[in-house]
Known about the structure:
This protein has 435 residues and is an alpha/beta fold. It folds into two domains: 351 residues, TIM Barrel; 71 residues, no CATH class. The protein has 15 helices and 13 strands. Flavin mononucleotide binds next to strand 4, strand 10 and helix 11. InterPro entries: Diverse_substr_monoxygenases, Luciferase-like_dom, Luciferase-like_sf, NTA_MOA.
Amino acid sequence: MSQFHLGWFNGAGFSLNGWGTPSFGTGYKPWEPDMFQDGIRILERGGFDFMILEDSSMVPETFGGSPEFYLNHGIMAPKLDPVPLVPYLAMATKHIGIVPTLTTGFYQPWMLARLMTTLDHLTKGRIGWNIVTATTQLAWSNYGLTQPEHDERYNLADEFVEVTKQLWNSFPASAAVLDPETGIAYSAADVKPIDFEGKYFSSRGPLNAPAGPQGSPVLFQAGGSPAGRRFAAKNAEVIIASCTSVEDMKAYYTDVKSHAVSIGRDPETVKVMFTTGVIIGDTDAEAAAHADRRREAFKKNYSMQMAGISNITGIDFSKLDLDAPMPELTTNGSQSSLKEFLSTAAPGATLREVLESKSNVGVMGFPFIGTADSIAGQMQDVMAEVGGDGFLFGASIAPEYMTAVVDRVVPALRKRGLVRTGYEHATFRENVMEF
Ligand SMILES: Cc1cc2nc3c(=O)[nH]c(=O)nc-3n(C[C@H](O)[C@H](O)[C@H](O)COP(=O)(O)O)c2cc1C
């Protein structure tokens, strides 16, 4: 089989990232860039294609109607803006792609287009954009706005992306003359207004920033619902998904790829990557025993589970009776997350039964458990079954875990010829589209 890609989803964003736990490396201080710089260097050694920096714009308070749980545990808040971290990560590395998360809910297209072009220059062509639509009213309230309905947010995002693409084309790199003989810097004839008038946005253009090495950032998106998948299939170059079974991965892959083809896209230019995490042991039995301990701990931590699902659905799960059958629930937040949360128990189950039904071993998406070599073999089998295009490790910047992945699992994958051993190209897009 051909090679597949590896990415890292820093799911905690620019936050405490495991502070107070053993995974927070010795000598690091919260809010300083050092741990992030060391983390991304480790990934680059391992030939990872990119690191995504998660983000959101609020202090959560859905669970229990208060920010107490979230702030006391330092989860999902506090959080700094990930965008200014990008140049620090770029200066620590040479090849790996850097993908901050920015929402179509609160930026203006012109502002975002210019910011991304600036970062494409500063990273020398290694920038990506994780497109999100802002799933909670709490975030919208911070901008004095009412959250649009779920599918409407994707329509808005669709138009947003259209405007930014036009803006990126409005000042092409070819406009550069930079001729010391004539003294001409840029050719005005090549820089054109876009005069975009849409339902949600209008922009005159042109951008005042000349295109960077990639022309535009590599576009990422994680649509889960039907509207989200359509958006991803239309706009994303790398689609990221969290699936907990091989069947779900296969169905997701087939669905978004066939939708992309049906609207005229070349499927080779749409990469689909699945969240994962590994539990590595010196023997398979040791790894399995470790996974069992983590599964039990995850199941019993009701508050952590409920705080997480409350945050992304906007439903306060602390208000539900643990021992009564679950009521019918709907959300204007992440629909696919709610569906997935409920799917592990039978219809009519109580909340306690739903929480106890989780077989999650504390990793995001699909787990691999065993020795490094057995994990490499399992990954190979899953990719062969699903069709592609790679795995996205979903975890904090945890230096100890990152080192284990890069120094144990990656060599086993390389031995099988499954992942890259170096970077062939100058830009992130060229590398991620190489296979
Ligand atoms: C791997 C992955 C990364 C994501 N990163 C973010 C993020 O940084 N910020 C955010 O607000 N949402 C993030 N999301 C949520 C998605 O943008 C989207 O809202 C979610 O997948 C639900 O989509 P749906 O409403 O179409 O089901 C992420 C989802 C996944 C699977």
